[in-house]
Design goal:
Elements: E1 9-12, E2 21-28, H1 33-43, E3 46-55, E4 59-68, H2 77-87, H3 91-96, E5 109-116, H4 121-131, E6 134-143, E7 148-157, H5 165-179, E8 183-190, H6 206-213, E9 238-242, E10 250-257, H7 262-272, E11 275-282, E12 289-298, H8 307-322, E13 325-332, E14 335-343, H9 354-365, E15 369-378, E16 383-391, H10 402-417
Antiparallel strand pairs: 1-2, 2-4, 3-4, 3-11, 5-7, 5-8, 6-7, 6-15, 9-10, 10-12, 11-12, 13-14, 14-16, 15-16
Length: 419
């Protein structure tokens, strides 16, 4: 097919103010392409309102209608297009973006920000990093005895320019402007071997691990997983598998509660199962419920007819749709600690904008964060990303109160789900 590289991705503004933007990806196909596209869209603070997928196994056509999750989000549409182009499996793209081999991970940098503490500061730094197109891989935040805050962010650069002194200086200058008089110092350098201790896997208590990683959430909600009235909606989740309608494909008909990343969660699960979408339609949300129809095949081009395979796929899809984020609180000595966990893609990629959403929730609640970290955790069958926040006392939310903890967990979950 003769097509100019710039036409592989097209982004058009809606006809009327407030109408969704239309994102079209027309490129060679690969298993998991839809997941990769949706992940990038989600990372830009966009919510997919509807979508269509079609492929002949060699060439893929994806159309997504998307809107900013909030009115305060400013989207760099040109940058979004470039990142979507980089996700297209095309030889032309690798030469255009001067990419390294696909097996080479991006360079990891350590950003050290030392500043005076205040409520909401951690989110302001996180927001600034998003504006700079710097992706947070790990975090270590510590409060010093004299009330200052030491932030260690292990980051990668979406523009691949942090190796230049100009880009590093621009990043530190932007952070200095955002923090103003609260900023004491800002250093940005390539992460060295001494940083390995901050990247280790986390250790959790048995009780917290059971709360976060339990497989019984679909059958029995744990005490802190059913706090919000919105959680009653999860009972809407239903999946129908049809192997008779199409001679070459298995049809998945999904009805689920709508949340801002549900399309990504569905496609992430299919990618992890190495399943290809031949045709798909994502219907608009109606009264908080969304329908998704997908004609799928295994990577070898065959239908999914084995009962055990169908049961396993449906179980993982329900878990991904209904409980993509796990949120709980636990005691840490005399203090309270907030835990948020999400599954990591088999490719090793974490979930976008989680740290941003959690710190935003805590800022809106007026709760200070004494320390925070992002680490990975291994269970018997999955790798998880775990976010830990040691919280400060608040007059409005006394952390010894179970009611206050309930409200904190509820607010954080609602923000993560877009409710």
């Amino acid at each position: 097919m003769d097509i100019a590289w710039e036409d592989l991705v097209l982004i058009k503004q809606g006809k009327e103010p407030g109408d969704p933007w239309v994102i079209t990806v027309n490129c060679p196909d690969k298993v998991g392409l839809g997941c990769d596209v949706c992940r990038i869209v989600l990372d830009f603070g966009l919510c997919i309102t509807k979508g269509d997928f079609c492929t002949d196994g060699y060439w893929c056509y994806i159309v997504l209608w998307a809107v900013p999750q909030t009115s305060s989000i400013t989207v760099d549409w040109e940058r979004l297009k470039k990142l979507l182009l980089s996700a297209c499996p095309s030889f032309l793209m690798s030469s255009y973006f001067n990419q390294k081999s696909s097996g080479s991970p991006p360079l990891l940098y350590m950003l050290k920000v030392f500043c005076l503490d205040r409520k909401g500061l951690l989110h302001d730094v996180t927001k600034a990093l998003c504006q700079l197109e710097l992706s947070i891989e790990r975090v270590k935040v510590m409060t010093t005895p004299d009330g200052k805050l030491l932030n260690l962010f292990f980051i990668t650069d979406n523009t691949d320019l942090l190796h230049t002194s100009k880009r590093r200086e621009e990043a530190c200058k932007h952070l200095d402007v955002v923090l103003g008089e609260y900023c004491i110092s800002c250093e940005l350098q390539l992460a060295g071997p001494e940083s390995a201790s901050h990247l280790d896997f986390s250790t959790l208590s048995e009780a917290v691990a059971e709360e976060l990683f339990s497989h019984n959430l679909l059958r029995k909600e744990a005490s802190l997983q059913t706090l919000s009235p919105d959680m009653d909606k999860v009972n809407l989740g239903a999946i129908t598998v049809d192997d008779f309608l199409s001679p070459a494909h298995t049809l998945l008909q999904i009805q689920c509660v709508d949340q801002k990343s549900v399309v990504y969660d569905i496609l992430r699960t299919l990618k992890d199962f190495n399943i290809q979408i031949a045709y798909g339609r994502i219907s608009p949300s109606v009264e908080g419920s969304r329908n998704v129809d997908l004609f799928i095949q295994k990577a070898d081009g065959k239908k999914i007819v084995e009962p055990d395979s169908q049961i396993a796929l449906c179980s993982h899809l329900k878990e991904a749709m209904l409980h993509p984020m796990r949120v709980t609180m636990a005691n840490r000595g005399p203090d309270a600690e907030l835990f948020v966990a999400n599954q990591v893609e088999l490719s090793g990629k974490g979930r976008p904008r989680v740290f941003y959403d959690v710190t935003f929730s805590l800022k809106m609640l007026g709760i200070c964060v004494f320390s925070a970290e992002i680490r990975r955790h291994l269970t018997s069958d999955r790798e998880w990303e775990v976010y830990r926040f040691l919280l400060g006392e608040s007059q409005e939310f006394p952390l010894a109160s179970s009611r206050a903890r309930t409200e904190i967990v509820d607010r954080v979950r609602r923000t993560l789900m877009g409710w």
